[in-house]
Design goal:
This is Response regulator. It comes from Shewanella surugensis. The chain is mainly alpha-helical. 49% of the residues lie in helices and 12% in strands. The protein is globular and about 35 Å long. The chain has one domain. The chain contains 5 helices and 3 strands, in the order H-H-E-H-E-H-E-H. A 3-stranded parallel sheet has the order 1-2-3, with helices on both faces. The longest helix has 18 residues, at 42-59.
Length: 113
């Protein structure tokens, strides 16, 4: 998968999680969270962000940047960013664009530490 290729780096730990068991799978504080969101279920994004905020907020100091991979249409993009997402990356995913967005997110992470 292209996303794993972009994230293949000695300092990255990549894991795949299921939104149903999200809190249990995030024992450590992640530096970045990437989620794949269906455009057909906009409430899914709010549900995931709320769970992340509640669960990680109780265990750790801050919610890390959350990057969503999606094919939301234009009208849903603003709402998605208002939920607390750091950024959106749209399908079809362009490897160079994803790499740039990840680098930007890492700069945000470094400022928080």
């Amino acid at each position: 998968m292209m996303i794993r290729k972009v994230l293949h780096h000695p300092t990255y730990q990549v894991c795949t999680i299921n939104s149903d068991t999200l809190p249990q799978q995030l024992d450590d504080q992640p530096d970045l969270i990437i989620i794949d969101i269906s455009p057909h279920d906009p409430k899914q994004l709010q549900y995931i962000i709320t769970r992340l905020t509640n669960d990680l907020g109780q265990k750790h100091y801050f919610l890390p940047p959350v990057l969503a991979l999606t094919d939301f249409n234009t009208s849903k993009r603003q709402h998605a960013l208002e939920t607390g997402l750091y950024d959106l990356c749209y399908f079809p995913i362009i490897e160079e664009e994803l790499s740039l967005r990840l680098r930007q997110a890492c700069l945000t992470i470094d400022k928080k530490k």
